[in-house]
Amino acid sequence: MHDDIATAKRALRAELRERRQLLSQTARDAAATGIREQLDTLVDSLGVRSMSCFLSIPTEPGTREFVDAAVRRGIRVLLPVTRTDGLLDWSVAHPDFDIAEGMFGLPEPVGELLGPIAVNDVDVLVIPAAAVDRNGMRLGWGRGFFDKTLGSMEGCPPVYAVIYDSELLDEVPSDLHDQPVTGVVTPTQTLILAPARP
Q1: Global confidence as pTM
Q2: Considering 29, 72, 92, 108, which has the largest number of Cβ atoms within 10 A of its Cβ?
Q3: CB neighbour burial string for 151-179, b if at least 16 within 10 angstroms, e if fewer
Q4: Topology (CATH level 3) of domain 3-192
């Protein structure tokens, strides 16, 4: 990666992280409600029976209400579990599943682990992001787990990144390994930004 791109990514991530930390609890609660409504509508419109999602941390737009509701509706939800080799294992969410702290202090489900290819048969992937630009380029948090996952998938289904409204930008710095997303889900809207990949 070029040094100037790496520097630009670090600076933008730091700014976005600070903005997220300054949000009030009221704003976070409202965002979680909005994300649940947007994701409910998305999975209904796509006829989703199986999907991936993630367990949000307190500063992220909340996904936990949605995951709980989706599981209770009978949707098979795969949640990521980090591995030391930079890939992701997956675990199927169940009602009242246990959560433990995984690598990097991220919340991860406790349960049977499925390998990295388990995600190949989902109808849609819902992933975290720091920001996304209007062409669908995603800026992650720098660890590369989701870029590796998306880059390794054949016939990748639609991929939606969950962000706050202010994190949809005109452009984000990117390099060759960075993977685009189909669209974004924010607390107020779901937008398609790029065609689904073959």
Answers
A1: 0.93
A2: 108
A3: eebeebbbbbbbbbeebbbeebbbeeebb
A4: Rossmann fold (3.40.50)
